[in-house]
Write a structure and sequence with these properties.
Blueprint lengths: L5 E2 L2 E2 H18 L3 H10 L12 H17 L9 H19 L7 H22 L3 H25 L1 H4 L13 H21 L2 H21 L2 H27 L1 H26 L3 H19 L30 H35 L1 H20 L8 H11 L34
Antiparallel strand pairs: 1-2
Helix pairs in contact: 1-3, 1-6, 3-5, 4-5, 4-13, 5-15, 6-8, 6-9, 8-9, 8-10, 8-14, 10-11, 10-14, 12-13, 13-14, 13-15, 14-15
Amino acid sequence: MKRPRMVWPLPEPVTRLVRVASIAAVVIVLTNGPVFLFSKSVVDRSGDWEDPAVWPFFVAAAVASAMLAVTGRSPAEPLTGSQKVAAAAVAVYSLVAVASALWSVHPFATAWRAAVYVGLGLLAWVVARLELDDLAAVLFSVAGAAVVGSAVLVVLRPDLGLDPNGNWEGLYTNRNSLAPVAAIGVLVGIRYLAAGERWSRVAGAALGALSVGAMAGAGSRTAWIALLIAVAVATGAVGFHWIRSRWGPAAAGASLAAAAALGASGALAALAALWDDPTFSQRRTMWSLVWGRVSERPLGGYGFYAFWEEIELLDHALLRRGSAHNSLMEVALGLGLIGTVPFLVIVVLAARNAGLHLWRGGGADSWMWAAVVGFVLVENVTESFVLWFSYAWVLLMAAALRRLPPGGRSQAVVDTVETDGCAHAPSGQGSRSGA
């Protein structure tokens, strides 16, 4: 039997467990909600970003991210061209954010917040190098802690766990912060149901059920829409390969075209039905207001994370809500054109890599990762997850930085179907994909 490789002073399984737990702890801080709950409800502080009960958590998360990046194992293979482009985009975005303190309307806020964002880039590199089963474990831990903690708070302290309208907030400041974490819990739960051992499946079912309950309690339309789109697209790719393996490329192509047409029709119908809903009509008004501000300082913006701190700039009630409710608008507002370019590079690479990961890798892990990235991408259309010290921005950067599994076409496509009806992947494909 092969002995476990030693990483002094502990065997590899223990070091992996410690590393996964450490990464999960940092990501939980970057979901933001528990930190503000501590500030407002435990120590009775204001809950502002500069609150002494708030900012040390994020600075500590950035420092921990740097330590995780330094202490991680170096990848065995050199960086691919895609990884080099992604790393350059993350570095440029981070440097532009820091440099924007020179022209920011609120230099102090920009300086320390942008410095923390450098740490988020390092954490993204750490997450990108995780093996897929370790990545699933991190997401399971984060979503599990968020959903279980929120459910407990709703039951035991409804004055804290519910908003004035009776919607679930749980550990978070609003329902639109809880629901996205719960949606990731749904996706991770499906992964463990599909590919885990007995007790892993039980845990996956429990997390999935609790997460669906939390999403229903929160009632966030944007999170539900993003989840449905992500699941449909990721499952469509898996279904294409399944049909191709049994009935050939023609049937798979026809099925994909039919599914795409049906999905597009459904999306257009939903868009028409929700066009005048306050959730979306207010966002359109907000985007118009923000675009007017962007046009006043198009090149460098108002400074990273600074616009919302200047009261005199917030001359409309919607602007006083504290975000543009769209990450592209948010970047253009804070960093102008010079920040928008690397941001778009990161987004495009994240979408491309997640899709290719599913196309080439197949399996429950690749499905989960593609669905998570797809969900985060769609959520960023209606929320500014690039603005806060956000786990969602970390996941997008990690998706852009992640190494793809080898192969020109899907290695999960079944080339032969045995007489017993069981499909087998090509030989030589491991159960994991390195980061």
